[in-house]
Every structure is written in structure tokens, then in C-alpha cells.
Predict the 3D structure of the following.
Amino acid sequence: MSKKTIHDVEVRGQKVFVRVDYNVPQDKAGEITDDTRIRATLPTIKTLLEKGAAVILASHLGRPKGEVNASFTLKPIAERLAELLEMPVKFVSDCVGEAAESAAAELKAGEVLLLENLRFHKEEEGNDPIFSEKLAKLADLGVNDAFGVSHRAHASVEGITRYLPMVAGLLMEKEIRFLGQAVEMPERPFAAIIGGAKVSDKIGVIENLLEKADLLIIGGGMANTFLAAQGNIMGTSLVEEDKFKLAKELLVKAEEKGVKFLLPVDFVVANRFAADADFKIVKADEVPAKWMALDVGPESAQLFREALKPCKTVVWNGPMGVFEMANFAGGTMSLAQVIADLKDAVTIVGGGDSVAAIEKSGEARKISHISTGGGASLEFLEGKELPGIQALKNKR
């Protein structure tokens, strides 16, 4: 860990601006349906409070497009955070300006303040320097504990570091440590499981992992494109025909580098994209003309299970099928169980759907690290430098 963390700086008596990622799902009534991201920041907040800091939290929620929108207020999150911390959490109706400055100035050591949604100002995503400076004026020190947005050069993530020294929070430190080890110094055999809909979304990740992994498993809609590129008829399954050439090149590259490259050998197919559609199991090269692959089949699940058994490092990003529908969740849930059962391996799960699947499986506690960043973890695995991490203070 080459970046400074909250353990490397003096925070007693300081007002500390903490960028968190409280972009949590809510129902139509505004009730939080999953507070995982809030709970993930508690160690950083509690540590800062114990060390005598006044904590100013800042986050975005949803896509209000630079305008005030009551549907995206962070007030319910302040209430939930207060319950989790078992202490009052102050809330202010803006993140900059007179109200925010006054609330920050009055905040005492041991107290917590949550600012209103950063994205109520278009300057946040525009990385506006004046907006960045206004945020910086609220505090003496900055902490980035929002790995999930650190691939974005936004005002509260990257711009603010020009006016306020920024260090890593404990969640950020954990993300960098686990993902960094997987990419740079994995214990082998190292397996990467990549799922999701499109090859085009994860080209860079696959290319980078082919340089590092011993085993690469492809599932989800992505697998359809690889199989179709090999000449298989995929019915009405999602296929990216313009990526056939690339898919073939990646398969050749895997062979040249000695990377074991596994694709599904059977599918659960349906006659339409619906939870109540007719479905059946077929071989990967026998998808009927008017049917579509919506999950990997049991033979594929067994193939993946056996291949993963000896692995010491496993990274999983992306589901094996349309796991939101019960009839097409078997492959993803089976994989979740397999990864959870790897007792001697470092296991890392990243990406919203993969995290949702592991939570749904009830095995999340057995995973070494569950990443809070979907796009950020992908770009990290792709080998890209994340602006929010790059801008943190170095130890030397």
C-alpha cells in the first residue's frame, strides 16, 4: 500500500471530509433496501471519531442530473447511518454554500455531519475547480473511502485533492490491497470468472487477465459470442456478431499463453425472455432456432466447479445468466456456492450483480473480499489507473 491512509495522519481536532459511496438502492417509498455500502464505511467513520476528528461525509445518490430532486435526497441515509452508528448524524440541505459552511464550522470533535447529494450540482461530475475548492473549504483533511466512484475524475474525488490533502479510508485501503494483490501478486493457480451480457463491456479486462490468470471462465451473454464465433448456432440468444473476430483472437491468445479458457458446455434455454417462459437444458451446440440461452447448464456448473477446486486466488465479476429470474439463477447461485466453499483460496467478488448474487446465496461472509465498486473494480482489473486513487497522498 503506497498511499497514505487515516492511520498515517493526525486527525485529532481536525475536520475531516470523507467521500463515501452511499448510492444505495431504495424502494418507491424511499426505504433503503440494501445498506451494504453504508455499513462498509463504518470502520473508517468510527476510527476517525475515536481519534478525535469531526467527520463530514459527502456522497452522491442516483442521477439527479445536476438539479435538486427530492427523490434523491440523502436524508433517509443520514437516518439509517445514525441507527448503525448508534449516535446522532447531523444533516444539511446542501453540500456547498452558506448552509454547508455553517454546519461544518459548528461541527465538534466526535460528531458526524452528512452533506446533501453532491450531484444536485452539475459541477460535481464536471470536476469544476471552483466547486472543488468550495468542498475543500469545509475541512482540514480529506479521506477517500469511495472506491466505487474512484474511476471518475469528479470534483469530490479528484478535483478536491488540488485544495485539500486526501488519504485513503479503511475501505479504500482494503479494496486496493485485495484487488492489487490479485492483479500483481496472486497466489496460484489464479482464476478469473467473467460474466455479464457483452464482450464489448469487458474487452480490456479479459485482455489484461490473459496476461496474469491461469484459468479464465466466461459465462453470461458474453459466452454466446465466443461460442457463436466458433461456429455454434445460438438461436435468438444475445450475440455480438461484430465481436467474432475479437473473440477468436482472444481464444488464440489464451492458447498461446497457456491459459485454460472455459466456456459453457450446456445452457438453460427459454422460448422468450420472461420469468415464466418455457425452458429446458440443451448442449451448447444444440440451441434451438427460436430459443435463447439464459443461464449456464448443470454440466457447465460441474465443469467450472472442478476447474476451480485447486485455485488459490479467484476473482469473480459478472453473473452466469439472468439470475434475477428464479428459473435462470441456477448457474450463478451454484458458482457462488463453489467460490464460498474454497476454504484455502483468496476470493474476491466485484460488480453489482455478482455481489447481489453472493448476498442472495447467503454465503457472503465466506468471501475474502466483496468489492463495493462495479465499474471501478473492472477498470482496476483492466490495469487502468483510477483518478481517485492516483490523487491520494503517497507515503513517500
In short: The two ends are 11 Å apart (CA to CA). The chain has a mean pLDDT of 94. Residues 191 and 215 are 5 Å apart (CA to CA). The domain at 6-170 is CATH 3.40.50.1260 (Rossmann fold).
